[in-house]
Write a structure and sequence with these properties.
The protein has 184 residues and is mostly helical. The chain is built from 7 helices and no strands.
Length: 184
């Protein structure tokens, strides 16, 4: 039983490594992961203080750089380096997850429409996991993050753990199984 658990854990670790490395296999994948990462970071930071974001962006939408810079500083001041690192890690993992999910959608589209239905929830899960703590601010619960233990860092860490778990389960989208039959 212990040997089986060790092999399963080793397989998950290898699959996680393969999933994290997949966006590095081509320039287009790397670019798509970078774009999603940047967009996720911007959304997370802007949603951390939505009233400020709305005020700045309705005044002049070209001030998005100023808003992101000011709110990045604010995230650092309220949660420290750890909070800022968690937000950045969240964004990077979301970029990887979305890139991998898009590859699965392309594979599924080539096979049949029914497998696309099975892959789409994974794509949506990556998006939902990436908004995690930021969705509280967007819904008007700005003070909720301050009330959470460790200034919401625990919630961010939970989201990162979920993304890592699902990336490890999925593995490299070029080799993972699309149907329930276990065929690659």
């Amino acid at each position: 039983m212990t040997g089986n658990h060790t092999a399963t854990s080793r397989d998950w670790t290898r699959d996680l490594r393969d999933a994290l490395g997949y966006p590095l296999t081509s320039d287009a994948r790397l670019l798509s992961a970078a774009v999603v990462t940047l967009a996720t970071y911007v959304v997370l930071v802007l949603s951390s203080f939505p009233q400020f974001s709305v005020q700045v962006l309705t005044t002049d939408p070209t001030d998005v750089g100023y808003a992101v810079t000011a709110l990045t500083r604010e995230v650092y001041l309220t949660t420290g380096y750890l909070g800022l690192a968690l937000v950045a890690t969240y964004a990077v993992l979301t970029g990887v997850a979305v890139t991998n999910a898009l590859a699965l959608v392309q594979r599924a589209r080539r096979r049949s429409a029914s497998t696309i239905v099975g892959v789409l929830p994974g794509l949506l899960a990556a998006g939902c996991a990436s908004c995690g703590a930021g969705v509280l601010g967007a819904l008007g619960f700005v003070g909720a993050m301050a009330v959470l233990p460790f200034d919401g860092n625990l919630l961010r860490l939970g989201g990162i753990a979920l993304l890592l778990f699902f990336l490890g389960r999925a593995g490299d989208p070029r080799t993972c199984s699309l149907d329930g039959g276990g065929r690659a």
